[in-house]
Specification:
4-stranded antiparallel beta sheet, mainly beta
């Protein structure tokens, strides 16, 4: 058994024992801020206004790139993320700066940021000051799903040291799973094409109503005999 699997089993055992004693288990610090797994049916998510194409720019920051003429044109929202952030993870962390046509430069954590060609046809974010040298990130082309931030991503702790990363956009709901401590991904992905994890995953994960307007993720990390948890997917950011 791998160290990762032993750790998740230890977390599960501790949770079961504490529950039997009538005590609430204290989650590791890395998961303490996560929202409860069981939540109400989702409503239109205002986070869609701030969603977009997230790219890592260094120093534990991402730039969320948007280019929606109805929202003011090119934008780059600079947000703080955990050190182990990878593409596909949630990115709605603390806002550090916003670049747009009215504010084309900013400095954050030693990096100089500039929104170039903000009023032209090929806007981009220029990042300088990192060890690897200057980098340029093209903003999404206006009129594309990325430009409007259609895909909204959230993270939810679902038990046994596991976080579900849920996304929803034009292609429907999708979720993958990772260790709450080190961010290691495991067990595969569920989406419209494959709404359930196979039995070999070792836990239950299934999308309820994957083609509907309010899909939910049902999970059970404790095996048989325990109630499953249901978590709503976020609403897409550009629902008509």
């Amino acid at each position: 058994m791998s160290a990762f699997a032993r750790r998740r089993r230890a977390l599960l055992t501790a949770s079961v024992l504490l529950t039997a004693l009538g005590t609430t288990a204290v989650l590791p610090a890395a998961t303490a801020s996560a929202a409860p797994a069981v939540q109400a049916t989702p409503k239109p998510d205002p986070a869609g206004r701030y969603a977009g194409k997230a790219v890592a720019i260094g120093k534990d920051m991402v730039a969320v790139l948007r280019n929606d003429p109805k929202a003011g044109g090119p934008e780059a929202w600079i947000r703080a993320v955990p050190a182990h952030w990878r593409s596909g993870d949630a990115y709605m962390g603390r806002t550090l700066a916003k670049l747009d046509r009215g504010h084309v430069t900013a400095t954050q954590r030693g990096l100089a940021l500039r929104l170039v060609d903000a009023k032209g046809s090929k806007p981009a974010l220029r990042v300088t000051g990192a060890k690897g040298g200057p980098r340029t990130f093209a903003l999404p082309k206006a009129g594309t799903p990325d430009a409007r931030g259609c895909t909204v991503i959230t993270e939810r702790f679902i038990g046994a040291g596991t976080v579900a990363v849920l996304s929803n956009g034009l292609n429907g709901p999708s979720a993958f799973f990772k260790d709450a401590g080190d961010g290691t991904r495991f067990a595969g992905v569920v989406n419209r094409a494959r709404p359930s994890l196979p039995a070999s995953a070792g836990f239950l994960a299934r999308i309820i109503d994957p083609n509907g307007a309010a899909p939910k993720l049902r999970t059970n990390m404790e095996g048989g005999g325990h109630p499953a948890s249901t978590t709503p997917f976020p609403a897409p950011g550009c629902v008509k």
